[in-house]
Amino acid sequence: VVASVCDAVLGIYAITPDAIQFSTSPEGDVADYSRVLGRLPEFNASATRIVFSSSVDVRHQYGELSQDDDPSPLSEQAFRAIRTLELSHCQRSVSERWTERCRFLIELLLSTGEPSKTLIAELLAVTPRTLQRRLADEGTGHRELLNQVREDKAKEYLRSEDLSLDDIAFLLGFKDTAVFYRAFKQWTRMTPGEYRALRGEYLV
User: What is the pLDDT of residues 36-89, one digit of tens each?
Assistant: First the structure.
């Protein structure tokens, strides 16, 4: 499944993952993972993740559409692979909260653009209205959850000097760096540069 996701992103954006992490131990010869995935993954991590970064200037084709009308940016193969990965993650997780399921998918999909409520609902095999109700029952909504994931990941990425603001904007699914800049200032009342300057023991 992870190999299918990597192939899909390679086909869409011509980029390969910077890191692949599995929450499980390796099964069989570790060299098989390198051969199939193109790099040696990290095992026994806190979660299964595929990490992409790129300084390539990407303009998402669906960036100007309304959220509920977004066409899926994923190929059919990628859609099936990500849905399978989410189901596998859900089966391993002790939590059945819709919030956690959505958060997992949002983190996985952000580097392909902003995941719409419609796309998340399709991956979870429910209607957008049903997804909205499930999240409301847990005290949140798609937009609130998307913003929270983006803020959390932005703070994580800004702690690394290896990522430029363009890279971070891309990884968070923003159509350009200026939009990311405005969003981050709205979340934290600081610019990304100011937050990065305060990195270290004083950051929360």
Answer: 777 788 888 876 777 765 444 333 333 333 344 444 555 565 556 666 665 665
Q: Is 112 left (phi over 0), alpha (psi -120 to 50) or beta?
A: alpha
Q: Name the class of domain 2-16+52-197.
A: mainly alpha
How many C-beta neighbours within 10 Å does residue 124 have?
Answer: 19
Rounded Cα distance between 162 and 30, Å, is 28
Contact 204, 193 (CB under 8 A): no
**Can you tell me whether residue 183 is helix, strand or coil?**
helix
Tokens of 50: 């595929």
Count CB neighbours of 70 within 10 A: 19
The Cα 108–Cα 105 span in angstroms is 5
pLDDT tens digits along 99-145: 988 998 898 888 778 889 998 998 888 899 999 999 999 999 999 99
